[in-house]
Amino acid sequence: xxxxxxxxxxxxxxxxxxxxxxxxxxxxxxxxxxxxxxxxxxxxxxxxxxxxxxxxxxxxxxxxxxxxxxxxxxxxxxxxxxxxxxxxxxxxxxxxxxxxxxxxxxxxxxxxxxxxxxxxxxxxxxxxxxxxxxxxxxxxxxxxxxxxxxxxxxxxxxxxxxxxxxxxxxxxxxxxxxxxxxxxxxxxxxxxxxxxxxxxxxxxxxxxxxxxxxxxxxxxxxxxxx
Length: 226
Ligand code: DC
Hints:
Layout: E1 8-12, H1 19-30, E2 33-36, H2 37-50, H3 58-65, E3 70-75, E4 78-83, E5 86-87, H4 95-104, H5 108-122, E6 127-131, H6 134-138, E7 144-149, H7 152-165, H8 172-188, E8 201-204, H9 210-225
Parallel strand pairs: 1-6, 1-7, 2-6, 7-8
Antiparallel strand pairs: 3-4, 4-5
Bound molecules: 2'-deoxycytidine-5'-monophosphate.
2'-deoxycytidine-5'-monophosphate binds near residues 15, 102, 131, 182 and 186.
């Protein structure tokens, strides 16, 4: 891979499509920075819930976001997310935080603040970023844009497995139901809904192993850089 040029890879798609697994592995192989933008919305949702803000009240959410001391740091090469001095990297992965994130991420002012922070963090680095609006909004000039998809059933099965591995098991039916609700919210909100950028490559990962997806993306990036 050309080491003399910085590049950016935007990976968007619905929950459970494998974005973070793929993005993390790709970034590691390419010695690039990985930014999981979902973790940032999760931290905002968690902070607002703790502050007792009604997440259905968009005006209250918008008014509260500027006071949240969110920051991202890299420890041992891994992304950590902080609220003030508290490392909430683990806490934001709790299943109940998913819906909080989906709600706060629908508020335009929250998105503005997060997009600005995401661009600032990535500035000057080769980066692999995953989320819902990376190719459409955060990095419109990304070297490579990918829309990663998989069937809802495959995505729910993957999420169940991931939760079980983290000792937070949830029944499949509940995970599937939550995922469909989140898909709906993420793709129907007015502000930057989950959509595929016109110039994104669509990849369905339902029948692919993670290393097959990573290899396909490496080949696409190689081509885009030449
Ligand atoms: O990828 P995730 O499950 O950690 O994302 C949590 C929520 O945050 C998801 O429901 C939608 C929202 N999100 C977003 O709106 N834009 C992003 N770039 C990333 C996540």
